[in-house]
Amino acid sequence: MNRPNDPDRDPREWLAQERALQLERQGAAAAHDDPQASRYRPVVRALREPLADGLPADFAQRVALLAERAATARTDLDLRLERNLMRGLVAAFVLVALAASALYGQATWQAIAALVPGPRTGSTSNWLVPALGCVALSWALGALRAAGIGRGGTTAH
Amino acid sequence: MNETPAADRELVAAVQARAAGAFERLVRQYQGLCWHIVQRMVRHPEDARELCQEVFLRVHQCLPQYRGDSALKSWIGQVAYSVAKRHLERKRVALAEPAWDDEGMSLLDSIDDGFDLESATSDAERAGHLNDAIETLPPLQRTVLTLYHLDEMPIAEIAGVTGLSEGTIKSHLFRSRQRLRACLEARLGVAA
After folding, report:
1. CB under 8 Å, gap of 24 or more: what pairs does A95-98 form?
2. In whole numbers, what is the pLDDT of chain A averaged over residues?
């Protein structure tokens, strides 16, 4: 809906304003052939006057430095947060594992030992050693892989 | 100043890759636009300087969100406008005052249509009166006028920066220019 002073309600006035802008952009001499546009030319000329630059000469350099520092601080904060979350998760897992062992450990071991076939059914000694060997081997391989990544893979962001 | 979409993308990629001097180049390229928007909105040089800094820090932080749908100039203009707008809202300064239109129009009614301002007054006198009149406009109108006349931003782009419709921008331009003309002619004693 048009309001009382909308350009659509007074297209001639709008065109006069736009013509004045066009003439100022072209740097045309005062146009006496278009008196309506001439009335807007001083207005348009004042609006096209550059504003006094209030930013210091080293503004860009200073802001770039601040932005770089802020970005580094954000990255550090993200890494710290990630590390702390991971620690929290591992601690929670260990606590749950300990609690589960304390509550159900004895019964679980007996149930597992009963399921595993062996010359002396009910004893865990004949399969526990290879099982622990597997765990140790997995851990050692994991540690070796982590050490390899630590040496060669931390440079990429 | 190269502001083609390809140049925009290249500059953004360089900033995101943390290329040396890339962000400084971006700031240098758009600090004028930012100053125009912020200074026209807040009219306080010290606040405007601080807000311009805030604008570019936010641009740096949010640059990964820039998808290239609009020109980088418009996107930075949007950030500058929203930072300045929030500052005015915090200070409880109205962005646009509806009452000023009627005042301007009543001035217009008292002006003789045949008066030739150009030949009747000196440039300095006119410029002085007009600058005073521009300062009396509400922040939104001042900013829209500056973006359109000084930064030569198309109406569609100004609409994108301010989040207003193109019709509203056109309306603000129309009425602000009418009001400035009326103020100037009234100041110079041009009565009908």
Report:
1. none
2. 80
Q: B2 touching A, CB under 8 A?
A: no
Least confident of A52-61, A66-75, B98-107, B178-187: B98-107
Give me the amino acid identity at A132.
Answer: L
CA distances from B47 to B39, B40, B84 (A): 8, 12, 9
pLDDT band at A2 (very low <50, low <70, confident <90, very high): very low
Q: Which residue from A minimizes the CA distance to B113?
A: A36
For the segment A46-61, the average pLDDT, to the nearest whole number, is: 90
**pLDDT score for B140:** 96
A48:B149 CB<8 A:
yes
